[in-house]
Design brief:
Elements (H helix, E strand, L loop, with lengths): L1 H18 L7 E4 L8 E5 L19 E6 L3 E6 L14 E3 L8 E4 L5 E8 L2 E7 L2 E6 L24 E2 L32 E9 L12 E4 L5 E6 L16 E10 L6 E10 L1
Parallel strand pairs: 13-15
Antiparallel strand pairs: 1-2, 3-9, 4-8, 5-6, 7-8, 7-15, 10-11, 11-12, 11-14, 12-13, 14-15
Length: 273
């Protein structure tokens, strides 16, 4: 019996090694063994995928279960964040912060994570976990993602960029990472259109100074305040203190504070840079 078990283990190891040959082209990694399922990331041509040992028996012919080491950017529902700011074990981790988003994995008690953003009813997390995904190893096995158009040049004196509400906020898993555009806060947000702003998140509250019109603000590298932040649209504001002193990217519309030269950004989403 022991001999048979050793032989079976040897055959399994050999089989896994055989299908882990270097990829001949850029290959899409899917959540499920189905070409129409969501794509988590792409493996470069020449890379050697790591076979997963947790799902080989259930993987259909023509597909290979692979192991992705992470970390991953994912989203959990705000109700799955406990009072100690840990994620509830058993919570679904999604690829995007919206209803109907594809589930990437299930959070386990031993998983390591950091909260990195707030998006309405969802909390963005950085998840340290190995995830099993799937690549096509027969037929049309390579996928070359369309090259994104180069962004329009930013004027030399402008420090803000118009942006669509979702795309710049790194929806989906970013492994390999897709950085949020680095944009500094600057000209006062004269337009009411939502934009991306970057700065250091600070509190304006002080026991020795008069109360400011808003409790939060963005500072530049010199420590000067560029704009106040109105976070009333964020639903999970008890986490806000975690962002103090960190450089953040916020998305929202800027407007003038009546009777002052200041501006305030009505924050729709917030995440660490």
């Amino acid at each position: 019996m022991k001999t048979n078990l050793r032989l079976a283990a040897l055959l399994l190891t050999t089989a896994l090694a055989a299908v882990a040959a270097p990829l001949i082209g850029t290959t899409a990694v899917h959540v499920k063994p189905d070409d129409s399922s969501a794509i988590i990331t792409y493996l470069k041509a020449g890379s050697e995928p790591v076979p997963s040992t947790t799902a080989p028996a259930t993987t259909p012919a023509g597909w290979m279960a692979v192991e992705l080491p992470g970390p991953f950017d994912g989203y959990v529902k705000n109700g799955d964040i406990l009072k100690n700011l840990d994620v509830r074990p058993g919570a679904a981790v999604y690829l995007a912060p919206k209803a109907g988003a594809v589930e990437l994995t299930t959070f386990e008690a031993t998983d390591k994570t950091d909260i990195t953003g707030l998006h309405g009813k969802y909390t963005q997390i950085r998840l340290e976990k190995k995830v099993t995904a799937f690549i096509h190893v027969s037929g049309p096995s390579t996928y070359v993602p369309a090259t994104a158009a180069a962004p329009a040049p930013i004027p030399a004196r402008s420090n803000v960029v118009d942006a669509a509400p979702v795309a710049p906020l790194a929806y989906g898993v970013t492994t390999p990472g897709r950085a949020v555009p680095v944009v500094n806060l600057g000209d006062g947000g004269s337009s009411m259109l939502p934009r991306l702003f970057q700065g250091r998140f600070v509190s304006t509250r002080s026991a020795f100074k008069p109360r400011r019109p808003y409790d939060w603000a963005l500072n530049d590298d010199s420590g000067s305040r560029y704009a106040y932040l109105d976070i009333s649209k964020l639903l999970l504001t008890e986490q806000i203190d975690n962002y103090i002193g960190h450089v953040v990217v916020v998305y929202g519309a800027g407007k003038a504070v009546p009777g002052t030269p200041d501006i305030v950004i009505e924050v729709e989403s917030l995440q660490l840079k």
